[in-house]
Amino acid sequence: MNIDIIVKGGTLPDGRVADIAIADGRIAAVDDAITAEAGEVIDASGKLVAQPFVDAHFHMDATLSYGRPRVNASGTLLEGIALWGELKAIQSREDIVERALAYCRQAVAKGVLAIRSHVDVTDPSFATVEALLEVREAVKDTLDLQLVAFPQDGWFRAEGGGANVVRALDAGVDVVGGIPHFERTMADGFAAVRAACELAAERGLRVDLHCDESDDPMSRHIETLAAETIRCGLQGRVAGSHLTSMHSMDNYYVAKLIPLIAEAEVAAIPNPLINITLQGRMDTYPKRRGLTRVPELAASGVTVAFGQDCVMDPWYPLGSGDMLDVAHMGLHVALMTSPDAMRRAFAMVTDTPAAILGLDFGLTTGDRGSLVVLDAADPIEALRLRPARLAVISNGRVVSRTAPAVSTVTASF
Ligand code: FE2
Fold first, then answer.
1. Which of 23, 86, 78, 13 is nearest to 49 (CA)?
2. Which of the chain's ends, N or C, has fewer CB atoms near its CB within 10 Å?
3. pTM of the model
4. pLDDT tens digits for 16-59?
5. Catalytic positions, please?
């Protein structure tokens, strides 16, 4: 067998030190010492070698548009949705493609090799869908882009919202989306959840809904999503994104809800950078944290992944595509500061989102030949320093290299 790359002596996230051989786009061996010839040997001694970062929740049609046509003055979700409506009316398909490709390049350099992006199907021109289908094709050898048919203005509230979800799926979009808390009434929200699950069951697809992204303790579409998942036989194929209302719910009710989510095998995708800034805007003090109950969900066996959600768009003025920033914020807001909890936070931007997207990423023989070498000793140091991604390997090719940060002037004490 011709070995293309050997990554030598790296420390894996579980602490093992190993060589990894990659051939024909897949991991050919993981062993103490691999002595075979290889096209390239990367010395990773003392460095963390991790499976790729995966972003389970993003909006690529809106990214890198900050300031167009204006900024979000209130900082709220609802003004963001209104502002996105203004941008939709003036942007072209070419604009979207250009911004999305620029973002993909940034994300890959940070070791992100798979992204699930929601794409707004309520844009009457359908430019968003056409643009992201084009981008998915352009990046496919390096970056797995999974698209969600997302009716931003509502399944029922937007004219033709549900029909446009079907149209997007027919055009090749992968996953059924929704936004039940944005429908006109709770009853419409429940009906939207039901319609999304039935459509996914009919077509054998996955579901990922923006669900209960509010501070309203009575916003309870996640309960319907779990029940509909079971009724439609979709266990293991459904995710609830955001779930911020769970932060504000009554504890007694949550004690029933979390086991129901676990029973339905519905995954949770909180987005800590965005929701710590979007939520709590109508509170005085104390201000609630805009994050769902991450440690409690994980402890009950729910698959939890942190998503990036936004980078420089109508909802969020910052962001860099670095999933270590996302996990860093997530572990702070969720109070996950024990060594075990910090390692779980690292897994929430690598292993668990890969499982939610159904990807064959991993660090064992036969897995995809995709990994990241970081300038850190272990996952906790990676979270603390968010260091250079020294090498990013995708499907057996080195697709990005970054030099370690070096200070050119050192203070003397
Ligand atoms: Fe989102």
1. 13
2. C
3. 0.98
4. 999 999 999 999 999 999 999 999 999 999 999 999 999 999 99
5. 213
